[in-house]
Amino acid sequence: MPSPDVVSWTTIISACAQADQGNEAVEIFRSMLHERELPNPPILTILLGLSGNLGAPQLGQQIHTIAIKLGMDSGLVVANALVSMYFKCSSADSLKVFDSMEERDIFTWNTIITGYAQHGLGREAIRMYQLMVSAGVLPNEVTFVGLLHACSHSGLVDEGHQFFKSMSSDYGLTPLLEHYACMVDLLGRAGDVQGAEHFIYDMPIEPDSVIWSALLGACKIHKNVEIGRRAAEKLFSIEPSNAGNYVMLSNIYSSQGMWDEVAKVRKLMKERGVNKDPGCSWMQIKNKMHSFVTGDEEHEQIQNIYATLWELYTLLKATGYVPDTDFVLHDIDEEQKESSLLYHSEKLAVAYGLLVTPKGMPIQIMKNLRICGDCHTFIKFVSSVTKREIDVRDGNRFHHFRNGSCSCGDFW
């Protein structure tokens, strides 16, 4: 049987990537290299995308090295993929690649604007937008999603309003649901939950689940029970099987000690057969991916991880850390609540990172869901006590923990 050619390898690797089989795609790529078949730009682009999505910077760097050796790193498509990959892996190399590019298209500019937005660097995103316009590149709908997202995660309310208006007045672009969702998020995060709700009812198009979820998330941050309940009812109607909406409403109720309401939500979930998505965190150590779930018992070093975590917990409490038990959705005593918080997946990942990496080395973690408030506070304390830089990319944004503070400014 003849060996596959590069087109066949591209088709196979692409199929794996589209089926969310990233590890299989990487193994097939390695088999391809073993067969002495050289990759083409589409394969490199696919693998760089996988590296970013998996939060695997070492893999991404290896692909970058291969691209350089093959003279493919300066091509526009591969260079754009490199910028995106390095941003997703929290690497400053994204800017090095961007600055070295001789040619840039709208995708390049959108990638860097969105990258800054995800890292909570709103002013930098706006600066890149201004450079883009100065270069004669016209923004599109994706550009404004990135800008509004940047404003939302940086608390730039006035600037967000200006960009929203500029879409239509300056560029003739009609705002889409994504832009309205960003505006709801912008208002809600800034504390104007009532204004965000009014904004939704004044929309010229029917709001979708993303918009109502943004409002519910704002209610969770600002503990607005009444508006939160209304947003949740809309979401239960639109997507009755989405566990995250029930959990978010339960968080609002539990923060106010409304345990009867929490019980009602849990009962509703049971009646509808809705199960809570398990929290999962993962990290790459020496080319190997390590994953953790809340209350994990499967990892090969789990006993050492628990021992490290308990030592860390004791140290942090002595330095002022107080577990935020509002994030426990059960009416149990405080000691039990603290115990249940301790074994969240991101805390296990942090403990493992401290256990196996050299002192002073940064720790990078990926999480499938939004980081909870207690874990956020916990990791801030860890970064202060251990003098480590800790980056967490959750389901919503990047968090860069340095010396006891987070890049999000506790605004997520």
From TrEMBL:
Keywords carried by this UniProt record: Repeat, Transit peptide
GO molecular function term, any single one: RNA binding
Domain of life: Eukaryota
Placement of PPR repeats on the sequence: 5-39, 105-139, 140-175
A GO BP annotation: RNA modification
Signal peptide: none
Residue ranges of domain DYW in the record: 320-412
Record flagged with keyword Repeat: yes
Coiled-coil segments on the chain, per record: none
Alphabetical list of InterPro entries matching this protein: DYW_dom (IPR032867), E_motif (IPR046848), PPR_At4g14850-like_plant (IPR046960), PPR_rpt (IPR002885), TPR-like_helical_dom_sf (IPR011990)
Protein name: Pentatricopeptide repeat-containing protein
Record organism: Zea mays (Maize)
